[in-house]
Amino acid sequence: MLNFDFYNPTHIVFGKDRLGELDTLVPKDAKVLITYGGGSAVRSGLIDRIVKALGNRKVEQFGGIEPNPSLETCERAVAFIKEHGVDFVLAVGGGSVVDATKLIVMGATYDGPVIEVMKAGVPEVPVDMVPSPLPFGTVMTLPATGSEMNNGAVITYGDGKFPVFSSLVFPKFSMLDPTLTFTLPEKQVKNGVIDTFVHTTEQYLTYPVEGRIQDRFSEGILKTMIEIGKETVENPENYDIRANHVWASTLALNGLIGAGVPQDWATHLIGHELTAAYHLDHGITLAIVLPALLEVKKADKLEKLAQYATRVWHITEGTTEEKADKAIAKTREFFESLGVSTRLKDYGLGEEAVDKIVKQLEDHGMTRLGEKGDVTPEVAREILTRAL
């Protein structure tokens, strides 16, 4: 097992009918800014319920945070905070709102352009650059990204998507009420299932390092998502099914299953470029890239793929290579069973998209991806070609 540090201070508040507890979670004297996305949180009455739960606190609102949140939107929110003297932020929505809020709370206390914080985000924004971000909490309405219990964000700027990390932007608390996800559009639920699944494979389908506990946790998440994936899409108000979806999404990216094991992330980084170039949903890009990547990198991932085949898909017959092939096919079938195509051609994209994405990867310095740093632009081209 690899050396690791594990730290996660986020307080999880899980279950139905708990909005009233915001009054005890948010400091009594806080001037609060609620950040949110489109109008659904307003139309559903959720924002009004949250304002009521916050009692006599002064509350401001900043809406319009888009999917794949932009630097420009974050900059406007930072200017709003500085103008209104906010000292606590409450993110209401899915991963995009929470990601944006992480950059916003850093930008709000940084004496300089917000873009400088964003560009310093890998491997991590230096603590002495932003030593005291504003505190924030979340009320989650979409199970997908795990952003509610980690210290990472992805911000869109120009033709790129930029990861931003800081050890100081774990949410103080995250309220996970599965009932708040019941009215999600079907497409967003599908994307959330895929995002949870692929977050897990990025930390599991690499190479063995005797991380037995991490493997078992990962396999449990994968098996759960296979069991409930279609049902959570088709029966959105089944509380028990959706509760498992919500918790699996959080556990898939809160640092636990990735501690002490190699991590890949090439699927996500190639997928980010597809989203930036063609505005495909994040979950869709993952469904396109992962099966093709596993086919191309099968030899390097063979031992873990065979383990995945046996433990997750219950494939027990055949050679190691045959098991790996069957597991990859099962993965593609799972995504397709949700009604999500795994081929670029089904989104009107052909060879020209392969050329464009490879060039973007090169332009953004993403030339040594994967757990071994061997997913070069040439390998990425092979993966994207397989995905046609």
UniProtKB/TrEMBL annotation:
Residues 192-360 form the Fe-containing alcohol dehydrogenase-like C-terminal domain. Coiled coil: none annotated. Keywords: Oxidoreductase. SUPFAM superfamilies: Dehydroquinate synthase-like. It comes from the Bacteria. Residues 9-178 form the Alcohol dehydrogenase iron-type/glycerol dehydrogenase GldA domain. InterPro entries: ADH_Fe/GldA (IPR001670), ADH_Fe_C (IPR056798), ADH_Fe_CS (IPR018211), BDH-like (IPR044731). PANTHER family: ALCOHOL DEHYDROGENASE YQHD (PTHR43633). This is NADH-dependent alcohol dehydrogenase.
